[in-house]
Amino acid sequence: MKIGILQTGHTPEELQEEFGEYSDLFQALFAGHDFEFETYNVVDGVFPEGIESAQGWLVTGSKHGAYEDHDWIPPLEDFIRASVSASAPIIGICFGHQIIAQALGGKVEKFSGGWAVGRQTYDFAGTEISLNAWHQDQVTELPPGAVTIASNDFCKNAAIVYGDRALTVQAHPEFDGLFIDGLINTRGRGVVPDDLLDAAEDTLAEPVANQTLADQFADFFRQERTQ
């Protein structure tokens, strides 16, 4: 199965030699699931020829806001709507989670409660799952027909499902503790409050459920669906 990665941002230059791009993190996350990947740098205006270019789609995280005025955001929203209409499964992570909600009629805002960085624990239908996060924006209003499937006290809509068409998560199952440490030192200091960064540093070695989410995403991509 071919998965098209819609890359909506780039990793910090200081981290690229060690970690690669966001698309590389996702390919590592899905290791063992026998997917084929192709990356489209939509943040640079590079889009697939059409929905049929892959059997499933994944929208990455980004330093940009879904509500910002960038030339590539409207065509990305058009692509998301086309994917959902065509019943091509699409998964969104962080910015991807937000832009899918916005494209389908939801609302994304800079959250007044501030930042979530590092290891966070969410209630996934009664099961506690911990994942790394790095965000200030949140989905504050769901699109019609969307259902929240994970939350915590800080992030009400931490994971959303849109029938069998789209599955999105606010946290970053592609981030391990080493990558969070890199973000703290390249994009965190002077932007995110020090107490949050210090707390995140304290949990860098604690376990996260990245593989659990990877397996769920793989199952979602592969499930049979009707037009």
From TrEMBL:
Signal peptide location: none
Pfam family, one: GATase
Domain of life where this protein originates: Bacteria
PROSITE patterns in the record: GATASE_TYPE_1
Start and end residues of each Glutamine amidotransferase domain: 78-175
Cellular component terms per the entry's GO annotation: cytosol
InterPro entries: ChyE-like (IPR044992), Class_I_gatase-like (IPR029062), GATASE (IPR017926)
Protein name: GMP synthase (Glutamine-hydrolysing)
